[in-house]
Specification:
heterodimer, A: mainly alpha, about 70% helix, B: five-stranded parallel β-sheet, four-stranded parallel β-sheet
């Protein structure tokens, strides 16, 4: 059998696919962040906690109410999205006229509080959440065993990402959104309720995080820190993709998942830092990010 | 100085004769992870256990005032060092207990020696604490990588697992556990095919697991702990690795990990612990008291070790008539240990606490009779087999 870069091609394909799966989570999360940043100019540090809340709401629905995964996939993002709307109306909306830093501090503080509350209630080790019976088992692809559920994660994430991109770039609602990003005063003058648009957008971005959380619940441990571990990486993804760029966040999300996956084969010790190294290089060469426009 | 010792001796005599004439003040610092991956297996539960020890020792009636303080070291050696220094230098702490995360424990052990205080470790695993990095001020209570390697590793090799591949957490603990298990596997005629070191803490282990799968080894040894082990086991089952015939050796699995995994995923796992709540009447009675004080959660072996360690420390303080580190540690090593959780045992010259270890198998969901009913006992490993022989440790102050 021939070898590619010192490892058998089968193993390489397997790792590429795994990278794509992890990239699905990066893409979903960075997409939500990019949308929120694009319209609200808020760096939403609560995003990781909201991802975690999505997973916990799915768990609660199942454990307390017996509601299954498929319903949770729709219901949990709605529930968490509503909490996002409340947070935006009560707190974040008061900070729009201030510097970025205030929004960052507020959302970071909120994340710590939310994580602390969940930790007090549920402990840190996490809670079990089974893979839905329809998606258990897997396919033998020849070069690797692909669990059905992971395949589903890639498909679901791609569909949601592309749908979101379509809505923002190709529909009238999306046009309003983009216009409001450019010039909120002018758009308001045309009779569009910009503050409501902003609130709904924040709720939607949060809903995306929660959706990723529900997707993650059966494969990662559902614990209060699950978002905190991930969110720093996702921020790096957003920076590499270009702050606020929708397509950029999707493409870099999947791309960096693959890069990280490959690092795990060639130099596993470095897999935790590789994304940050790339971020540093990108910032040096193209400070606005790969898909960003220079300010 | 002489006079001081005389007074102490007089006090000890007074205490031993049952009349509480003088008062001794003892300050105990419970230092562990209160917010990260090891918070459930140590955390607040360890503080609860330490309080129970003070209560059961009946310190007040014996004229010993015990104060307990606690802090979060976030599993970071630098944070642990800073807190330990402040506790010893400014807050008058006499003894630090628990300290999971081997790298943090080694740091605290060094500082304790420098400040000449007492360190009773329960949470950390590295056998270096009583080996190459031993300290006359440190007692290592609950378990160590050597005992884990011999318990779980030995059992897996015996069951036919000749070739191994390790998934290792990339820090002191993971390295020590991999090293000690490798020794066991090779001594039994087995072979280690390779290992991969993953960042700590990690979330996705599928990539590493696939490398382990590609190695074709009989056994995949998980030299990690807490959330990392939980995710590794979950994902190994998801990727059909266990179903395809490779077995997983969870080299360090705690009761709280099994609780988080659920029996559906964890069933059949073989693991080594030094304590389980359902061992006998005494452990059951104590654990129920513990659960009452700790939101209904059953204790882990780490929390049990904190209880037993604090209890024995207080007995030594009583016997030594004060908190002088040298005298107290000497007493701790001289007196046999006796508590409801670990039974009778002793502390060896190098600081290693000796007691039985147990090999458990995780029950199937059908076998379990309710919450926290998770383990069935496979074998009891006697102290002479469980712990590394004194002369093999390479502890410098042991002749």
């Amino acid at each position: 059998m021939f070898e590619l870069l010192g490892i058998p091609p089968q193993a390489l394909f397997g790792q590429l696919l795994l990278g794509l799966i992890n990239g699905s989570f990066y893409a979903l999360l960075s997409l939500g962040l990019a949308i929120i940043f694009g319209l609200l100019n808020i760096i939403n540090f609560t995003h990781g906690a909201q991802y975690m809340m999505g997973a916990f709401v799915a768990w609660m629905l199942l454990d307390y109410l017996g509601i299954n995964y498929w319903v949770a996939l729709v219901l949990a993002p709605v529930v968490v999205g509503i909490t996002g709307v409340i947070i935006e109306r009560l707190l974040i909306s008061r900070l729009y006229h201030l510097d970025h830093l205030y929004g960052l501090l507020l959302t970071f503080g909120l994340a710590l509080i939310i994580q602390g509350l969940f930790r007090n209630q549920y402990g840190i080790s996490g809670l079990p959440y089974q893979i839905p019976p329809l998606l258990s088992g897997g396919q033998n692809l020849g070069f690797m065993f692909l669990p059905n559920y992971r395949g589903w994660v890639v498909v679901a994430s791609l569909v949601v990402c592309l749908a979101t991109w379509f809505v923002i770039e190709k529909t009238r609602l999306g046009a309003y959104l983009r216009a409001a990003t450019e010039n909120p005063v002018l758009v308001g003058a045309f009779g569009i309720n910009v503050p409501r648009l902003i609130t709904v957008t924040y709720g939607f971005g949060v809903g995306l995080a929660a959706f990723a959380g529900v997707l993650a619940a059966p494969i990662y441990s559902v614990n209060p820190n699950m978002g905190a571990d991930l969110i720093i990486v996702v921020f790096a993804v957003v920076v590499i993709g270009g702050m606020g760029s929708i397509l950029g966040s999707i493409v870099t999300g999947f791309g960096l998942g693959i890069v990280e996956g490959l690092t795990r084969v060639f130099y596993p010790e470095g897999s935790a830092v590789v994304i940050f190294v790339i971020m540093a290089i990108v910032l040096l060469v193209k400070p606005a990010g790969l898909f960003g426009r220079a300010a | 100085m002489r006079l001081g010792k005389f007074v102490l001796a007089a006090m000890a005599t007074a205490l031993l004769s049952g009349t509480a004439l003088a008062e001794t003040n003892v300050k105990i610092g419970v230092l562990n992870d209160r917010s990260g991956v090891y918070a459930d297996l140590s955390g607040e539960g360890s503080v609860v256990a330490a309080r129970m020890a003070v209560e059961d020792f009946d310190a007040e009636a014996k004229g010993i005032n015990v104060e307990i303080v606690s802090a979060d070291h976030q599993n970071k050696p630098d944070v642990a060092s800073t807190i330990a220094r402040q506790w010893y230098d400014q807050d008058g702490v006499d003894m630090i207990v628990d300290v999971p995360t081997s790298s943090a424990a080694l740091a605290v052990s060094d500082i304790t020696r420098e400040k000449n205080k007492v360190f009773v470790n329960s949470g950390a695993a590295t056998s270096d604490l009583t080996g190459s990095k031993c300290s006359p001020n440190t007692v290592h209570w609950t378990y160590d990588t050597y005992a884990l390697a011999h318990g779980t590793g030995g059992a897996m090799v015996e069951a036919g697992g000749k070739t191994w591949f390790f998934l290792t957490a990339d820090y002191a603990f993971g390295h020590a556990l991999e090293r000690d298990t490798t020794a066991v596997v090779e001594a039994a005629g087995g072979e280690v095919l390779g290992s991969v070191r993953h960042p700590f803490p990690g979330t996705d282990f599928s990539s590493f697991l696939l490398q382990a799968q590609a190695s074709g080894s009989d056994v995949i040894g998980l030299a990690n702990a807490g959330g990392d082990t939980i995710n590794s086991i979950k994902q190994a089952s998801e990727f059909g690795i266990t179903q395809a015939g490779q077995s997983l050796a969870g080299l360090l699995v705690f009761l709280t990990d099994v609780h988080a995994l659920g029996l559906q995923t964890a069933q059949g796992l073989v693991l080594t612990e030094s304590f389980y709540w359902d061992l006998n009447d005494e452990t059951r009675a104590w654990s129920e008291r513990f659960a009452e004080a700790h939101d209904g959660d059953m204790p882990t072996m780490v929390q049990a070790g904190v209880y037993a360690g604090v209890l024995h420390y207080l007995k030594a303080v009583e016997a030594a008539g004060g908190t002088d580190a040298e005298q107290v540690v000497a007493k701790m090593k001289e007196m046999p240990t006796d508590d409801p959780l670990f039974g009778q045992g002793s502390i060896r010259e190098d600081g290693r606490k000796l007691h039985d270890m147990y090999l458990f198998r995780v029950k199937t969901p059908e076998q379990s009779e309710g919450p926290w009913d998770y383990y069935e006992l496979v074998a009891t490993i006697p102290p002479e087999k469980a712990w590394r022989p004194l002369e093999e440790g390479g502890c410098e102050f042991v002749k």
